[in-house]
Design goal:
CATH class of the largest domain: Alpha Beta
Shape: globular
Order of helices and strands: EEHEEHEEHEEHHEHEHHHH
Strand content: 15-25%
Number of domains: 2
CATH architecture of the largest domain: Alpha-Beta Complex
Helix content: 40-55%
CATH topology of the largest domain: 2-enoyl-CoA Hydratase, Chain A, domain 1
Strand order of the largest sheet: 1-2-3-5-7-10
Largest sheet: 6 strands, mixed
Amino acid sequence: MKYTSILSERANYITTITIHRPNKLNALNIETIKELHDALNRADGDKKTKVIIITGSGEKAFVAGADISEFADFTKKEGKKLAAKGQGLLFDYIENLSTPVIAAVNGFALGGGLELAMACHFRVASDNAKMGLPEVSLGLIPGYGGTQRLPLLVGKGRAMELIMTAGMIDANQALIYGLVNHVTTQEELLPFCEKIADRISKNSSVAISAAIKAINACFEDGVNGFEVEIEAFGKSFDTDDFAEGTSAFLEKRKANFSGE
């Protein structure tokens, strides 16, 4: 499929999706959100894709924010619809995707860009990365899940300060806060993410999918995560991957998982 604002390519078991709007510092607009959803949906349905990496083109930005020109004259009703549709189509969709998604954060990740990174299952940043949610400086609040995911990742107090000041933090501060898992040089960013993806790809994709669902349940209101884990654990015994994994362990060989 040919896209206008993203690039998507698979090499071995990794699909890399690159937001490619260099003249806009990869800012998100409605079209980009739709294309990201389509590319993610295709990758998730591809049996050969074990891990997805999302990054931004160029050296300056992962995603520098939302394309403000697109909604500057929106009404209250239109703004609410924009947030609801974006969350459902992309941000919540990524968080609950069965295929692991790594955000390779290169450069600025602001507003919707940081919200996109936070929706991914975990984040790796280049040492030139800058992150923040500056929406209050525009008379807005984060609308793509930022007020919900940031406190879960860095704590309520830090989230309050970052959002209220509309400030930015650098990659090392993000690492201290727990907002990112690792910091690398910009040259090492994608190779480093690919090494993690390679380690993930050697494991059971069906078990990883179940683990994602169980972990996410911990953060859902009204859901007993322990019960979700127990149910998923039990179902694991009825998979081909469980039979292969235990057989390989007992036979002292590497497992060859089918993802079934």
